[in-house]
Amino acid sequence: MTLSWFEKLMPTSIRTDSSTKRGVPEGLWTKCTSCNAVLYRAELERNLEVCPKCNHHMRVFGRKRLEMFLDESTTEEIGASLIPFDKYKFKDSKKYKDRLLQAQKNTGEKDALIVYKGKVKGVPVVAAAFDFRFMGGSMGSVVGERFLQAATTALEEKIPFICFSASGGARMQEALFSLMQMAKTSAVLAKLAKNKIPYVSVLTDPTMGGVSASFAMLGDVHIAEPKALIGFAGPRVIEQTVHEKLPEGFQRSEFLLEHGAIDMVVDRRDLRDRIASLVLMLSNKPATQTG
Amino acid sequence: MNPNYLDFEQPIAELEAKIEELRYVGDDSEVNIGDEISKLEEKSRSLTKTIFNKLDAWQTSKLARHPMRPYTLDYIDRIFTDFQELHGDRAFSDDAALVGGLARLDGMPVMVLGQQKGRDTKENIRRNFGMPRPEGYRKALRLMKLAERFRLPVITFIDTPGAYPGIGAEERNQSEAIARNLFEMADLQTPVICTVIGEGGSGGALAIGVGDRVMMLEYSTYSVISPEGCASILWKSAEKAPIAAEAMGITAKKLKEAGLIDQIIREPLGSAHRDVDETARNIKQALIDTLENFEKMGMEKLLEERYRRLTSYGEYLEETTA
User: Nearest Cα to A33, choosing from A60, A73, A11?
Assistant: First the structure.
């Protein structure tokens, strides 16, 4: 690997505006997408993209997410050479090929899942994170294969695996291949479970469809960020099916906690501490000094 | 229009109507029209063959959802003996959209389960149009784990528009119910054979679709999202469903070519509902042959091969830059 971890991270845009080019300096000020407070960009960043006024957790994407989560010493990317392939020459209102190129240009990524082997508070882990900007974080063959390689690395090195989900579900343009990624990712997690490798699933806004109905809901521990939308069917589809108004807070993290679907809702700024502590206990290792 | 025939089958329907008419006349006519009838019957057969030889994905999808298409219990009746239905997930309720139980296949005890659609409105409401809720998938898992414990092969029949998008289903964590089945089936210590008999709709289908052999009836479909769903998201219009169906390659033939399924089971001329017994015989034979093969392989090899298969799904490229 020629680029250092930091060099690789630097140019990644953290704005939700997908037309932002990589490398263009961010504006000095930004607005909270929830309370509309005007925020100082640098301060928001220091606060891990959590609004200091209202605690709203703004979406963070792939590489940026891993940068926040992992120790600075992290260097080794997994599955970076994998690139998507338009087997079906799929074309709706746009060609899938063009959608891919556009997403690649907007994000600087080849596909929607980024994986690194690194450390969190000194504890060696494999961590994966979705870039929701990349075609809605949809799962196709590359996402599935990177997930497999991530989990397999964790298995071989006997270190915990953590995945940050943010996805609309399966990538329709890859047809049944995308559905089969659910089976693929679940199969490797069965292997991890058998071999007593801890797997922590972090559900972030939004985690839906085929991602939710596979590895995101197969964690040894399920952690959600506050107010994330998490579910199988989208709220609009449900509303159209049942012709009912959905209950307040439906499919939000707190709703899932109340219904027993997740273990905890954790503030983004506490994730490193909480996850490092959890995986150490699951690995039956002593608590270590934070590093 | 004859409701037993789909739009693209109307020329066949017309011929059949004519034959029927002639038969009527034949009873009290002095003219020998037997020859005429058999000629027309032959013509009807060859017309059916011609039409069915070049079905497109959307037409196939209509056949897969044909109101007369045989459902899981129709096949269980014909393929197995001693069927004893087992009910409930032991936690919440019994989901009638997913049925299962113990039965014998050619004398051998097995666990058989599948989604079940209703034949009329009343039954469809009870069966939720073959769309299971979490408790349906959890019942399926319970039965599969039971089969594992007693080393009985698991045979599943897939026929669902998908998992049910409802408030209660989400409250009871539909996602986890599906995910858990994928996880458990990947390493279930007993042979698993899955057959798509009608509609293979998305995660709701896959939740009983992970196994050692995946087969499809000739005119069934299997897709990541319904053609209508795909069309309304990507084309912003559900009316583009025929195009979406084609684009996603949802037919048995296309999926076999893509290596995503192992075997296509032939349907009789004019598709399964024209001769349910024959279709059932074809499925039965395929099941027996497959199980015989698995017996020779042994459990360890079978599980290794299952894992290899599951983890090899995918089409991607590798960049060769340093």
Answer: A60
**Nearest residue of B to residue A245, measured between CA atoms:** B167
pLDDT tens sequence across B240-297? 999 999 999 999 999 999 999 999 999 999 999 999 999 999 999 999 999 999 999 9
The residue assigned the tokens 């005429």 is B36
Q: What angle do CA A201, A183, A232 make, to 5 degrees?
A: 60
pLDDT tens readout for residues A175-198: 999 999 999 999 999 999 999 999
Which chain A residues touch B255 with a CB distance below 8 Å?
A: 176
The model carries a pTM of 0.93
Distance between B56 CA and the closest CA of chain A, angstroms: 16
What residue in B sits closest to A96 (Cα-Cα)? B234
ipTM of this complex prediction, to 2 decimal places = 0.95
Could you write out the DSSP letters of every residue in A200-256? EEEEEEEE-HHHHTTGGG--SEEEE-TT-BB-SS-HHHHHHHH-SPPPTTTTBHHHH
Flag if A187 and B175 touch (Cβ within 8 Å): no
The per-residue pLDDT for range A76-113, each reduced to its tens digit, is 999 999 999 999 999 988 999 999 999 999 999 999 99
CA distances from A258 to A254, B199, B217 (A): 6, 34, 43
